[in-house]
Amino acid sequence: MAYILVADDDDVLAEIVRQRLTAVGHEVTAVEDGEQLLEQVRYRMPDAILLDAMMPVRSGIETLIALKSDPVHSEIPIIMMTARRNQADVLAALKAGASDYVTKPFSPEDLALRIEGLLARRHYAAEGCGMGKVFH
């Protein structure tokens, strides 16, 4: 089970995401904007973050940059969730450190699989699997 923070100002979408991820065994906390998300990470380190790009108070990209510039939080995998589909937005998010980029509308099942993949890769890297091994 992982602890996942969701930041999205669309209450209905945040609840759908929360229900789907809870159904597969994760603990999920949803907040409405980037500022609330930054407050939450001070209290408890999430295993992953789902971050809407367009939110009031502090945008997703501003929040992403703040997290990635902080050494304490820079390794948290972050998936951007947004209606913005153009290449410039995707590249800006990925360059700023997003682990993945999902455009709305999306399938909650697809999102759950993406989270599972991110968490598995993070676990694999943390275990040092494949590091320094030579295969013949």
From TrEMBL:
Keywords: DNA-binding, Phosphoprotein, Transcription, Transcription regulation, Two-component regulatory system. The modification 4-aspartylphosphate is found at residue 52. This is Response regulator. Gene3D superfamilies: 3.40.50.2300. GO terms for biological process: regulation of DNA-templated transcription. InterPro entries: CheY-like_superfamily, Sig_transdc_resp-reg_receiver, WalR-like. It comes from Croceicoccus ponticola. Residues 3-119 form the Response regulatory domain. The keyword DNA-binding applies. GO terms for molecular function: phosphorelay response regulator activity; transcription cis-regulatory region binding. One of its GO terms (cellular component) is protein-DNA complex. It holds the Pfam family Response_reg. Transmembrane segments: none annotated.
